[in-house]
Amino acid sequence: MREELEFMLTEAREFTRFDFDFGFFGQKAVFRIYYEVLVSATAYSRFVLHEGAQFRAFSATEILSQPYVTPYDAFAIWIHYKRELFQR
User: What does the pLDDT look like over 15-47, one tens digit per residue?
Assistant: First the structure.
């Protein structure tokens, strides 16, 4: 995040991890780890975009309504958005 947005990350909390076994395709297993990073409005306003045309924050409902979100990323976002359903 420092390289892409000039944001000095102080803490990232691992939220969830998905493991995928692609052995049936003759491929190795892969995994994706998702982190939660809290960003204040002040820090967000100081982001400097170095690559890409633009950036902006999205709500979970906005992201989940997009047609080009990878399904496993959408699932992780949904779990985070609905995390109270999973808490004891």
Answer: 999 999 999 989 999 999 999 999 999 999 999
What is the Cα Rg of the chain in Å?
16
For 54-87, what is each residue's pLDDT tens digit? 888 899 999 999 999 999 999 999 999 999 998 8
Alpha-carbon distance values, 77 to 45, 46, 59, 63, 64 (Å) = 23, 24, 10, 8, 8
The token pair at 4 is 């892409």
Give 64's contacts (C-beta < 8 A, 6+ positions apart). 74, 77, 78, 81
How many alpha carbons lie under 13 Å from residue 41 in its C-beta half-sphere? Answer: 0
Q: What is the DSSP string of 30-71?
A: EEEEEEE----HHHHHT----SSS------HHHHHT-TTS-H
